[in-house]
Amino acid sequence: MSTSKMAAGCERVDSSHSMDKSITLPPDEIFRNLENAKRFAIDIGGSLTKLAYYSTVQHKVAKVRSFDHTAKETEGDPLYEISMQEEVSARLHFIKFENAYIETCLDFIKDHLVNTDTKVIKATGGGAHKFKDLIEKKLKLRVDKEDEMTCLIKGCNFVLRNITHEAFVYAKHADSEFRFQNTHPDIFPYLLINIGSGVSIFKVESEDTFERVGGSSIGGGTFWGLGALLTKTKKFDELLQLASKGQHTNVDMLVKDIYGGSYGSLGLTGDLIASSFGKSATPDKEFSKEDMAKSLLHMISNDIGQLACLYARLHNLTRVYFGGFFIRGHPVTMHTITYSINFFTKGEVQALFLRHEGYLGTIGAFLKGAEEDNPNQYSWGENYAGSSGLMSTSPDLNPMQRARSGTFDMLEMDRLERQLVNLPLLQDPSSYIPDTVDLSEDALAREYWLYCFEEALDGVVKRAVASQPDLPEAAERAEKFRHKYQHKLQTLRHQPFAYGSLTVRSLLDTREHCLNEFNFPDPYSKIKQGENDMALKYFQKAVKSLGELSWEQRQFALVRGLLAGNVFDWGAKAVSDVLESDPEFGFEHAKLQLEERPWLVDAYDQWLERLKGPPHKCALFFVDNSGIDIILGVFPFVRELLCRGTEVVLASNSSPALNDVTNSELQILTERIAAMDLVIQSAVKEDRLTLVQSGSSSPCLDLSRLDKVLAGVVRERHVDLVIIEGMGRAIHTNYYAILSCESLKMAVIKNSWLADRLGGKLFSVVFKYEVPPGHKTTTLDHVPVTPS
Amino acid sequence: MAKIVDSSHSMDKSITLPPDEIFRNLENAKRFAIDIGGSLTKLAYYSTVQHKVAKVRSFDHTAKETEGDPLYEISMQEEVSARLHFIKFENAYIETCLDFIKDHLVNTDTKVIKATGGGAHKFKDLIEKKLKLRVDKEDEMTCLIKGCNFVLRNITHEAFVYAKHADSEFRFQNTHPDIFPYLLINIGSGVSIFKVESEDTFERVGGSSIGGGTFWGLGALLTKTKKFDELLQLASKGQHTNVDMLVKDIYGGSYGSLGLTGDLIASSFGKSATPDKEFSKEDMAKSLLHMISNDIGQLACLYARLHNLTRVYFGGFFIRGHPVTMHTITYSINFFTKGEVQALFLRHEGYLGTIGAFLKGAEEDNPNQYSWGENYAGSSGLMSTSPDLNPMQRARSGTFDMLEMDRLERQLVNLPLLQDPSSYIPDTVDLSEDALAREYWLYCFEEALDGVVKRAVASQPDLPEAAERAEKFRHKYQHKLQTLRHQPL
């Protein structure tokens, strides 16, 4: 299906042109949004060209707007108005292709460039001067060269800061080949080892402070050159393939070849290479190409690893990133480098690789050209819909995707409207991992969830179409979405590491990115609207009946109500089935579904004890679904907190995800509830109830990427209680998150497989109340007591 | 001369040994040690040497002195002194040598031979069978370092700096009163790097698999030349820039902002992946030599910096007597340390293992408590077996190289009043750096030789063979002078 689509693309077969111009580009996929492109940058290496441009993307966003309150409300009128608006957002495009395609690509760009106020293209890389004239002639842009190393390091800083799971540790024999590293809040200092033809070693201490501390002439060019001489194989990739099949012990002299075993007193094991190629001076013996290539690979990788380790020790650095064409997407070189680093540092230093290592130069060149737009002041996020993922062009892996997009690899990054930072209450930001299960390490779980998302796809498509009844092409777009997401799922099945650690969150986020890509910004908008409308009608009744209970009964009822509300979640398959078949399924019914105490995870007694103590200063509440959940579950609970004298900050998504309540919806809901309820009204008026955006548009929650404003509010208000609600935020993510203040994590497990895994059953309840160790909760002093 | 030509023996036994020169004083030899490397065997033994000393004795003072009576009495006495013998020869000669030793060994209370080196276990049975001595293996690295300490302490001008293009290729270092700490880089098949802090404190701090074996092995694959020496010869004739990618090949010139000059090698063999291009053996060998030497130099420099050491000695078969490897290593060290660290080489580097093994076996004699001096008469001198140099001497003694050291009767130390013992140089003019002066003084000593011979004979009027011995002396000294003319080192 995909190949026919490719052919349907702009086919530029022109016999008067040179050979490489006959290559068919799939333009709708590889040079997207060219019309508004500006700020071009190009990095031309020995064999690959990397192009970068900045573009604006017009896409639909769903907006909600309250109806005029002065007008009298009619029964049956919707609560608020939903509209689709066009919005323009900034996106960075990076495309990597073989140098052979460069002329075709330049022609294509020229033909599609509409915007003409771009005058300059930033260029870097060894090939930049070779293609300078061609670029200037074709694009009519002035080529402006930028220093290669500066670009490399600028690019490295950018990806380390902005791309989740950019860096990874490679472990060939582990359950999971790729162990992605958490984005570290402070990326400096680090050592960057660029293995191109030779090796350059940079110490990077800040955005503008870096130094080439060393280098070596034994690099990728040595592997290539010596390998070509030894094996008569002239292609780098083929040499690597040879190496991966060889036995270095036939060529190398091992310690045991000299000493008959290990050299114990020096701590040298018998299998250690004593002398690379030490056996190959043997007269009249032939050595296989494979064995020689393997020995050469070991020799070079070990040498680089050793140098890296020595420079790291000399400069007291433990973070060492490797890049350059020797590394790029080659498991065999990553393996040997990792092995070498482990050997030489005894595990003290880890070899780190980068998912987008090949793009560093062009990203850096782009940033140099875009300094007036100040891209570093924004946060950027990888767009999973537009990015190829790790190793998309690796010949070993993923033949399907390779066949589809040829040798074009893409990275797209969206400028996020808001700057994202850590939640200040994370106990240890550098060790925080949002996701509970890493699906790339758990084959069974991966299989289940990939299946789950595939199964749910029909429903999502149906709902997407239904959400735009007045747009006739919606069905066609929805099919495109289906195709894209299905393809992503297939890619992830083959390469679970394509976008970092595969998690339920990344699967959900990828789906959101794909929906947005095809202009389905909020398929649940109408459903949410209806649910909100319905739930509001019950609000006063619910509050009244709670008021009739004793204090202790009420505390329990509030928690149960919150949990019951959380059962209403269109995102979970079990629930959407029930809701679609039985629209009468109500709040009370949900309560009956709930597991009786003791719950699967049950800290209710401790929570109740805590409530008997002094009130919290301020609670930060990460809310989940719209409708019954937010209105009948969360608001009564919040109301009780307010009555106790606790200020409340409600954090909701900045943009839609499933049926999660968004910040703009929540503003309308809060107004409406305030109109009905004096407690809420005065709290809003007195600023004791505040609404903030989380900065997220995911059904899950990454506490290391939150809106900067939220972080500010948390600090100002001295938040001492964090409440996280729902399966996506409290179980798929943050289940093990450790906060420096009290926290409540509440969810109903609406997935039988997950329930099984956790030892419970469908609708089991998780109620986790955690107090950081050494934390005093009975004191009236709200300053957190830190353990001595 | 005992010619050991025995047709019933294997080929290599037909080699003629010049026994009066290479296994001297075997009759009283004891404490044998042997270090068998990949291609060379090094043998050590301790022996006593009987020789004449001139004594003077005052006449009895109570007796009345007569006018014309000499002031004191002169007599010749036999004295026995200790001497260490070290002989280095190719492994091919080992059986012949063992047979020779066995035939000439008189002293029989020696039961053990200390052995070290990678080849020790390979030749163990042969040695035990031939010499009827038990082979007692000693740790190779411990021997190496013990030997190194010994030569640094006891041999004047043991260490030197190599400078190919300077007036004098070899700049000998003064014996430093305190030899520790230092870094020893042993480049055999692979590379081992030792930090030596005292006689008994040393540690292998690092190593590398890219060493002499890599040069040999990769060189053999690339050039089809299987001999190490021939590979070095190829390398010395090659142009590495034909094979290596230089900074200027990539950037058109220097990469100024990174401080990289245009001629710097950016990528070793970086040009050799070019399709359909042939590369000469010489150029490939040169590039390989640069690659390996630079790498070792860089590692040496990094380990020296990590351990805060400035004295770095290089040894092992990769270095041993090869100007071309000393040159590239020196160049690399200078490049990486910007002159802060000097690459030091050792005149007797090839003997370190056997000296160390010998010392291990001789610990009861406590050789370290004595001072020892190199006997110039019995020692071959630097590069006696180098194929490039000194064809005369090579033809004469085959591939046998010798070192003899005399035990000095008294332990020698610095004059405590020397301002700076480490920079003190006793000699006023270094003739190796001054060709004119060298020529003059060599001529001078040659001119004086006749007179010296005459005087020597006259000093022993009552010994009829004195004339014959004096002629042997003339011959030996004349030969040494000729050697020094060719190798002023």
UniProtKB/TrEMBL annotation, chain A:
Catalysis: reaction(s): (R)-4'-phosphopantetheine + H2O = (R)-pantetheine + phosphate; (R)-4'-phosphopantetheine sulfonate + H2O = (R)-pantetheine sulfonate + phosphate; (R)-4'-phospho-S-sulfopantetheine + H2O = (R)-S-sulfopantetheine + phosphate
Taxonomy, superkingdom: Eukaryota
Gene Ontology process terms (BP): coenzyme A biosynthetic process
Gene3D superfamilies: 3.30.420.40, 3.30.420.510, AF1104-like, Uncharacterised protein PF01937, DUF89, domain 2, Uncharacterised protein PF01937, DUF89, domain 3
Record keywords: Acetylation, ATP-binding, Coenzyme A biosynthesis, Cytoplasm, Hydrolase, Manganese, Metal-binding, Nickel, Nitration, Nucleotide-binding, Phosphoprotein
SUPFAM superfamilies reported in the protein's UniProt record: Actin-like ATPase domain (SSF53067), AF1104-like (SSF111321)
Record InterPro entries: ARMT-1-like_metal-bd_sf (IPR036075), ARMT1-like_metal-bd (IPR002791), At2g17340_3_helix_bundle (IPR035073), ATPase_NBD (IPR043129), PanK_long (IPR015844), Type_II_PanK (IPR004567)
This protein's GO CC annotations: cytosol; nucleus
Major place of residence: cytoplasm
Listed Basic and acidic residues bias regions: 11-20
Domain Damage-control phosphatase ARMT1-like metal-binding: 455-761
Subcellular location: Cytoplasm
Cofactor(s) needed by this chain: Mn(2+); Ni(2+)
GO molecular-function term, one example from the UniProt record: ATP binding
Region (Disordered): 1-21
Similarity field: In the N-terminal section; belongs to the type II pantothenate kinase family.
Function: Phosphatase which shows a preference for 4'-phosphopantetheine and its oxidatively damaged forms (sulfonate or S-sulfonate), providing strong indirect evidence that the phosphatase activity pre-empts damage in the coenzyme A (CoA) pathway. Hydrolyzing excess 4'-phosphopantetheine could constitute a directed overflow mechanism to prevent its oxidation to the S-sulfonate, sulfonate, or other forms. Hydrolyzing 4'-phosphopantetheine sulfonate or S-sulfonate would forestall their conversion to inactive forms of CoA and acyl carrier protein.
Subunit structure: Homodimer. Interacts with PKM.
Stated name of the protein: 4'-phosphopantetheine phosphatase
Gene name of the encoded protein: PANK4
UniProtKB/TrEMBL annotation, chain B:
Biological process annotations from GO: coenzyme A biosynthetic process
Cofactor: Mn(2+)
GO molecular function, one term: hydrolase activity
Family annotation (InterPro entries): ARMT-1-like_metal-bd_sf (IPR036075), At2g17340_3_helix_bundle (IPR035073), ATPase_NBD (IPR043129), Type_II_PanK (IPR004567)
This protein's UniProt keywords: ATP-binding, Coenzyme A biosynthesis, Hydrolase, Manganese, Metal-binding, Nickel, Nucleotide-binding
Keyword Repeat attached: no
Name of this protein: Pantothenate kinase 4 (inactive)
Any one Pfam family match given in the protein's UniProt record, by short name: Fumble
GO cellular component: cytosol; nucleus
